[in-house]
Amino acid sequence: ETGVTQTPRHLVMGMTNKKSLKCEQHLGHNAMYWYKQSAKKPLELMFVYNFKEQTENNSVPSRFSPECPNSSHLFLHLHTLQPEDSALYLCASSQAGTADTGELFFGEGSRLTVL
Amino acid sequence: QKEVEQNSGPLSVPEGAIASLNCTYSDRVSQSFFWYRQYSGKSPELIMSIYSNGDKEDGRFTAQLNKASQYVSLLIRDSQPSDSATYLCAVRDSSASKIIFGSGTRLSIRP
């Protein structure tokens, strides 16, 4: 138990569906991240939120839409995805600001399959 | 493009021996370096962070950083079968906004 919870753990969707991934952290952190992990590729940073404000969008296609309503919750809204978007989507949190160490704490991930 | 490079392995080490994992990075002014362990089917777990040149020890793990050579390594002493996993090297870039990961080295400890 890392203190970062992701739901759903597994998701299968068609290319025309709309779904959302949810992440919640119980660590009191104020930075949250979405990473994509595909087979045989490095973890790819998608989005970063610091104090609820988006500070990084790593050239992610608009079919992925993040939302961060507060420092504890992060969503990734998915629509019109492609089969190549099938991957493990990992949420992470860290402490930003004066206590920032850069250390990331990951959730267990949401395994997405796009048919 | 800032990069973090690791040998993908697999690296096979006998039980009880020292496992040595290496990583190089391209951003010369990076300040923060991390090692994560990822078991198959699980998410990455932080095992070491290092911020200054030299060695940092934590139990059986030692991280080594050489900023002049842009090189960071992880030594695992007295390797156990439970150490078998993929080890990810991560570097925070100079803007401090991104943490960039290598593709990982798969380590196998053979009994």
Question: In words, what does this structure look like?
Answer:
The complex is a heterodimer of chains A (115) and B (111). Chain A is mainly β and 115 residues long. Chain A is 0% helix and 56% strand. Chain A has strands spanning 4-7, 10-13, 18-25, 31-37, 44-50, 53-57, 64-70, 73-79, 87-94, 105-106, 110-114. In chain A, strands 2, 4, 5, 6, 9, 10 and 11 form a 7-stranded mixed β-sheet that branches. In chain A, strands 1-3-8-7 form a 4-stranded antiparallel β-sheet, with no helix packed on it. In chain A, a hairpin with a 2-residue loop joins strand 7 and strand 8 (73-79). The radius of gyration of chain B is 13 Å and the shape is globular. Chain B has no helices and 11 strands. Chain B has strands at residues 4-5, 11-14, 19-25, 32-38, 45-50, 54-58, 61-66, 71-76, 85-92, 99-101, 105-110. With 111 residues, chain B is an all-beta fold. Helix content of chain B is 0%, strand content 54%. In chain B, strand 7 (61-66) and strand 8 form a beta hairpin. Chain A binds chain B through residues 2, 33, 35, 40-43, 45, 48, 55-56, 58, 90, 100-109, and chain B through 4, 32, 34, 36, 42-46, 49, 88, 90, 92, 96-104.
Structural class of chain B: mainly beta
What is the alpha-carbon Rg of chain A in Å? 13 Å
Count of DSSP H/I helices of chain B: 0
Assembly state (oligomeric): heterodimer
Give the largest chain-chain interface (CB within 8 Å).
A-B, 23 and 22 residues
* Share of residues in strands of chain A: over 45%
Note poorly predicted spans of chain A: none
Sheet bearing the most strands of chain A, described? 7 strands, mixed
Strand content of chain B: over 45%
Strands of chain B, total number: 11
Overall, the morphology of chain B is globular
Mean pLDDT of chain A equals 92
Class inferred from helices and paired strands of chain A = mainly beta
- Which term fits the overall shape of chain A? globular
Q: How would you state the average pLDDT of chain B, rounded?
A: 93
Straight-line distance between termini of chain B:
40 Å
